[in-house]
Amino acid sequence: MKKSVYSICGMCTVRCPIRVEVEDNEVTWIEGNQHLIGGALCAKGSAGTALVKDDERPQQPLIREGGRGAGRWKKVSWPTAYDYIADKLKNIKSEYGPESLVVSSRGGPWQGMYKTFCHGFGSPNYTNHDCTCGRNTHHASLSINGVGRKGFSYDIKNAKHLVLFGRNMFASLQIAVNLQTMDMLENGGRLTYVDVRQSMTGLKATRFFQVRPGTDYALALGMIHEIIKKEAFDGDFIDKYVTGFDELCYFIEQYSPKWAAKECGVKEKAIKAFVDEVLEDSPKVIFHPGWNLSRYKDSFYVSRALHTLNILMGNIEQEGGLLIPKGPGDCGVKGIRNLDCPKPDIKRGDGVGWKYNHFDKGPGLAHLFFPTMHSQDPYPIKAWIAMRHDPLSGMPDPEAQKRAFDNCDLLVSIDTHYSEFGWYADVILPESTYLERDNPICLQKGLKPRLAVRRKAVDPVFDTKPSWEIFKQLATRLDLDEHFPYKTIEDLWKWQLEPTGLTIEDFAEKGFVSLTDEPIMFDRDKLDGQFKTPSGKIEIISKKLTDAGLDSLKPYTSPTKAPKGQFRLVYGRSAVHTHGHTVNNILLYELMPKNSLWINTKVAAKLGVVSGDLVDVIAADGFKQRIEAHVTEFIHPECVYTVHGFGKQVPLQSRSYHAGLSDQKLMVGMLDNWDKAGGAINLCEAFVTVRRSARNMKRRVEL
Ligand SMILES: Nc1nc2c(c(=O)[nH]1)N[C@H]1C(S)=C(S)[C@@H](COP(=O)(O)OP(=O)(O)OC[C@H]3O[C@@H](n4cnc5c(=O)[nH]c(N)nc54)[C@H](O)[C@@H]3O)O[C@H]1N2
Ligand SMILES: Nc1nc2c(c(=O)[nH]1)N[C@H]1C(S)=C(S)[C@@H](COP(=O)(O)OP(=O)(O)OC[C@H]3O[C@@H](n4cnc5c(=O)[nH]c(N)nc54)[C@H](O)[C@@H]3O)O[C@H]1N2
Ligand code: SF4
Ligand SMILES: [Mo]
User: Fold this and answer.
1) Strand pairing of 512-514 and 207-210?
2) Is the CB of 266 under 6 A from ligand 1?
3) What is the pLDDT of residue 481?
4) Is 269 found in the same domain as 186?
5) Mutate to test the pocket of ligand 1, among 292, 571, 638 (most ligand atoms within 8 A of CB)
6) Residue 170 CA to ligand 1 centre (angstroms)
7) 353 near 365, Cβ under 8 Å?
8) Residues 81 and 227 both lie in one domain
9) DSSP string, 224-240
10) Which among 68, 366, 503, 614 has most CB atoms closer than 10 A?
11) How high is the pLDDT of residue 443?
């Protein structure tokens, strides 16, 4: 029997809307939802079919039998696994208190469920992956605009100029945004791209700055200087909505384009020509404030500078600028209900909210639990449940993490795959893949906010369960049923939709329900109340930062120089993989089975390395990995580059097992190298030694 199901892609956390064709319980075709993204989809989205069929994923719950990481598992039934976890959690609670539990996830629209479980159990320690992703950007936006990273969307389609600092969007995809950018380029819009190497996005750019690694802050300061000098800013917008502009003008005097050009290794003329273009294109100029900016010691200030550039453009709630996402209230309708439970009034174990007051205490900072696991200060951490999160691949220095995790009595992985963390854990609960399960309804804010739902396309191939059922079953065993008011997903949808007057059938036609017919824009003259800072204005000087002893306008310092013979390790994404969990997908593995190490041509010549040679890449503690070199002039000589997500260690995943190099294993000591102002880990502050491997065949000399 054939059917067509509207749903939400789950191959990465962008969650594009999709339509799935099914024949006899087999997925035969996946495409983008025609109503929203015109059928477009990326390679990963299309490879969802291979995910369902992958028999190298956990097929039933597993409880560890041997030592942690030894790979000896007992296959158990779901009730046995639930009972095992519930008993352990009850014991941990009575011995150490409920706060000794940490629940981590990848955030997103369904996190209310995991958070509710954590809070209901009695722990304030819900956390997410973001300390290695967008936390600096989030905190930068909060400190300046009073709203977080998701507080703006970008009207790229109508922009005249999009400026991207290392936001490699044509490899690090978001389909709707990619479509908008292609429309912008077709309409004659300009794209300026800044990176330490050439990339998929750089290839499409109209202007490319190849900068020295870690000098983005200098370039952004030089741009601000020139824009202010040329009075190319929106004075009315600044007068009305911004405080601290005079301090900015005073601070920026020292950072001329000439200075910036020297620091970044670009041409002064190019910075000035860029600002001339901005002058022509403003206010329809968007400076993307960055996404995965958990990179350098000053990435937080890079993001603040990029927000400042937007403020100078006066582009907020402006066509072709930054738009404020609208919700149900703005459409005059009621929103859905979500699972929720107030956070227990106990200090967080990561110090956020009491030791560190300037951070968003919602999800806190996951990496700050590791020192607590060792010190037990303010209390012991004894259990960690990772839901759709793989700390051992997403956070640096897995060996240091394992030493900390060994202080825990219970490690649980709820995952569709064997993650590196799962392989080290005590229990693996296999979630059904996104094509085999339903999810709760979610709100997608925007100019035309909508409600959307992920629907099951096929029955699970193996003995796996959806997370709504996993959390419900655990909650029942821990007497938390009052927070989980449903038995079936239909009950949950009904409960969610009750205030709205909608039913789940309303989603059948298009996979979503729009909350408005026309896009909603606020009056740009009446934006008061939109900036949730203490003063209600955009604050260039943040009191929260000042109170924490931190600068709002931080004087620039050059990046640390690599020790002799070493290189800064820089990473990024490929368009055909999602972090570490698609390498074993048979279709995507075929497209890119392993990563390589990009090395600048001149550097490679000195090392005696040519493309295709094996090189040894050695971490600060001497840990060595071997990988193929990709020699190119399109990378800055001070760094080497690799694609994240490879070098996996789970033997049951035969394709990804030891394929390529793991960047996180080279980031030794980086768990403690984090940004006290932005909160995120400085992933690009690690240096590695590179040398030609002795394993290469001797090169023959042609005579
Ligand atoms: N295909 C695919 N798409 C994805 C994802 C995925 O895994 N796969 N993941 C999603 C997620 S979670 C995220 S956070 C986003 C991340 O998306 P982005 O924020 O765009 O991050 P990266 O892809 O890591 O690319 C960062 C770029 O920064 C460059 N870079 C390194 N150092 C510097 C520097 O000093 N200055 C500048 N200007 N550039 C530098 C790197 O060379 C790289 O090209 O992508 C999302 N989209
Ligand atoms: N060295 C280095 N570190 C990095 C990065 C880097 O590029 N280099 N990137 C950083 C960024 S931007 C991010 S966002 C993080 C990513 O951090 P990770 O937590 O590693 O993210 P993913 O690999 O996307 O997914 C985590 C786990 O979710 C599982 N999963 C996928 N789909 C599902 C599902 O439907 N249900 C369940 N239950 N599980 C599922 C996957 O199998 C995987 O094990 O890593 C960060 N850390
Ligand atoms: S970007 Fe690709 S993998 Fe990610 S949700 Fe969209 S279609 Fe799926
Ligand atoms: Mo991310």
Assistant:
1) unpaired
2) no
3) 97
4) yes
5) 292
6) 10
7) no
8) no
9) HHHHHHTT-S-HHHHHH
10) 366
11) 97
**Residue of 12, 20, 29 to test ligand 3 pocket, by largest number of atoms within 8 Å of CB:** 12
- The reply to whether 329 falls in a domain is no
pLDDT value for 386: 98
Domain assignment present for 402 = yes
Structure tokens at 223: 């741009």
* Pair 202, 267 in one domain: yes
CA dist., res. 481 & res. 494, Å (int): 17
Q: What is the pLDDT of residue 190?
A: 98
Ligand 2 neighbourhood includes 10 CB (under 6 angstroms)? yes
User: In the chain, how many domains are there?
Assistant: 3
Phi, psi of 410 (to 5 degrees): -145, 125
Q: Which mean pLDDT values do the consecutive 10-residue runs of the chain (703 residues) have?
A: 96 97 97 97 97 97 97 98 98 98 96 98 98 98 97 97 98 98 98 98 97 98 98 96 98 98 98 97 97 98 98 97 97 97 98 96 97 98 98 98 98 98 98 98 97 98 98 98 98 98 97 96 94 96 96 98 95 97 97 98 97 97 97 98 98 97 97 98 98 82 61
Q: Is the CB of 196 under 6 A from ligand 1?
A: yes
Does one domain contain both 489 and 361? yes
pTM score, whole prediction: 0.97
- The answer, yes or no, to whether any atom of ligand 2 lies below 6 A from the CB of 161, is no
279 and 394 part of one domain: no
- 542: in domain: yes
The Cβ-side half-sphere exposure at 379, using a 13 Å CA radius, reads 19
Instruction: Give the separation between CA 453 and CA 490, rounded to whole angstroms.
Output: 12
At 229, which CATH number?
3.40.228.10
Q: Kindly state whether residues 73 and 198 are assigned to the same domain.
A: no
Q: Which atom of ligand 2 is nearest to the CA of 387?
A: 38
Range of the domain at 248: 152-323+523-547
Atom of ligand 1 nearest to the CA of 212: 35
Q: Are 500 and 333 in contact, with CB atoms under 8 Å apart?
A: yes
Q: Residue 703: what pLDDT?
A: 59
Ligand 3 site-directed mutation target among 7, 8, 14, 170, most atoms within 8 Å of CB: 14
Q: Which two tokens stand for residue 283?
A: 């206010």
In a domain, 364, yes or no: yes
Cα–Cα dist 369/375, whole Å: 10
Helices assigned H by DSSP within 54-134: 78-96, 111-121
Same domain assignment for residues 288 and 382 = no
Q: Which ligand is nearest to the CA of 394?
A: 2
- The residues near 391 (Cβ < 8 Å, ≥ 6 apart) are 104, 366, 384, 401, 421
Q: 41 CB under 6 A from ligand 3?
A: yes
pLDDT at 636: 98
